Amino acid sequence: MTNPSHGGTPADETCSEAWSAFEVLLGDHLATMLDVEDHLIVEIPDGGASGTAPYAQFAGCGDGSTVHGEVTSNAYLGAAFLLDEDEELLLDDAGFVLADDDGTPANWSSEEDVTVVRALASRVVFALRQVFGIAHPHLMTYQAWGPAASGARRLGLCPTADVPVEGEGADQAPRTGLRKTAYKPKTRARLLRLVGRALEERYGVASPLDDDEDYLLRHLDQPVWVRVRQDQPAVEILARVTHDVRSLRGTAVEIGILNRDHLWVKWELRDRAVFQTLVVPGFPFAPLHLAAMLDVFEAAMTATRDDLALRVGGRTA
Predict the structure, then answer these.
(1) Distance in angstroms (rounded) separating the CA atoms of residues 278 and 263
(2) Each residue of 147-185: pLDDT tens digit?
(3) Under 8 Å between Cβ of 141 and 159
């Protein structure tokens, strides 16, 4: 998420090393795709019906002298992953072409001679990591067929066929990309879409956005907001748990005790109202972390709200 207030992209040496290694392995495999029957797909496993998660696909071309590669375009991407104009410009600058002049849906594509196919691998890794914001290559799975398919196992990815999908058994988790992956959203708009999809998967319905672009939930019959911060790459969970408190000094003492006793959740006094807050990192964004922190937030609110209102002489919403 690009934001001048947080000092740039956090360094992540482990992920950088993993992507560098994957780029080499991908280039090695593409160099073996010398038959028109050779195909490879690397993808984020995803079970959504509204569109796909990011993927890249490759095919041997012509007489085996070139390899054709594609990365997903907005024609196929789900709402949480749609590219904005700046991200599409990055793909264009990297050497991808969107050949949809006749109105037929198309992906961003690039093609290289098999002797310099490492350039294609580098271009695709840039798209997956820097444009789509996939945090680590091992979050992806692969499909391969054709004469070179057996070598794809050296990519170090799990075969897509081995990922459990919904309906295969009660003891298997549904195949849902947002519950299993982490993302590095480059913009607030992308992070906002990822948060919305995570909330939709958790609650089964889309959470409405208010005028401030906050997602509105309810707990204990009162509003709880989930917002993407404007000033930091972070997701904030927020609720006004009591208001019209009797004594500012006495309330400050009470919330000081709560803040001492709770690791993740914090309480703040604003005028004569007390807000309960919890901040989740948004870069990288892990939907599973947001789901877990919502559980923590709601449990703390259930355990403390009414007692706090009683102690400070305030009212609940």
Answers:
(1) 10
(2) 999 999 999 888 888 775 544 443 433 333 344 467 888
(3) yes
Distance of CA 241 to the CA centre of its chain: 30
33 Rama sector, left if φ>0, alpha if ψ -120 to 50, beta otherwise: beta
What is the reported pTM?
Answer: 0.61
Q: How far apart are CA 89 and CA 166, in angstroms?
A: 36
Strands 108-113 and 97-98: antiparallel
Task: Specify whether the CB–CB gap between 192 and 228 falls below 8 A.
Answer: yes
The closest of 194, 247, 222 to 316, measured between CA atoms, is 222
Mean pLDDT of all residues in 241-263: 93
**Strand order from edge to edge, sheet including 158-159:** 97-98, 108-113, 66-71, 55-61, 39-43, 141-145, 158-159
Listed residue (304, 278, 276, 274) closest to 291, CA to CA: 278
